[in-house]
């Protein structure tokens, strides 16, 4: 992805001064940095942050998002960027760069989120980009 300043995880704490909010902010940073690691999971995230899994889930519960959901959202956001930026990039490479264990997992997430296949998503993005260029 070319825009590394883009936020991949849209989780924001309600009260930034609480210990759970501090944990949520740090967990979000780790997810944004390590989303491409296929081993990243709620358990490994808790281990990297040196907190219990229960504590991690409690922090995410403050904003109504699950830990696995936040990881998946970061991965799908990254995959969408890769799909939109380079139509020649093979799907297995997109899946690998985005942290999905395989192409099927990426396809399932795209279908669940956008109700389309990766090739349909690419086509939609190409049409949007083309229409933006004409404007």
Helix/strand layout:
Blueprint: H1 19-34, H2 42-49, H3 53-61, H4 67-85, H5 91-98, H6 103-114, H7 118-134
What does this structure look like?
Residues 25-124 form the HTH araC/xylS-type domain. It comes from Microbacterium gallinarum. This is AraC family transcriptional regulator. Keywords: DNA-binding, Transcription, Transcription regulation. It is elongated, with a radius of gyration of 16 Å. It is 66% helix and 0% strand. The protein has one domain: Orthogonal Bundle (Arc Repressor Mutant, subunit A). The chain is mainly α and 135 residues long.
Average pLDDT value?
87
Question: Which class of secondary structure composition applies to the elements?
Answer: mainly alpha
Unreliable spans are: 1-5
Report the span from N to C terminus.
Answer: 24 Å
Largest sheet, described in full? none
Q: What is the approximate shape?
A: elongated
């Amino acid at each position: 992805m070319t825009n590394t300043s883009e936020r991949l995880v849209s989780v924001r704490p309600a009260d930034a001064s609480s210990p759970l909010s501090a944990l949520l902010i740090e967990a979000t940073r780790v997810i944004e940095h390590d989303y491409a690691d296929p081993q990243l999971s709620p358990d490994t995230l808790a281990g990297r942050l040196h907190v219990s899994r229960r504590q991690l889930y409690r922090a995410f519960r403050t904003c109504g998002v699950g830990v696995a959901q936040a990881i998946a959202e970061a991965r799908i956001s990254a995959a969408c960027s890769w799909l939109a930026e380079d139509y020649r990039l093979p799907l297995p490479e997109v899946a690998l760069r985005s942290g999905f264990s395989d192409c099927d997992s990426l396809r399932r997430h795209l279908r669940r989120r956008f109700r389309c296949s990766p090739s349909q998503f690419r086509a939609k993005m190409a049409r949007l980009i083309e229409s933006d260029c004409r404007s």
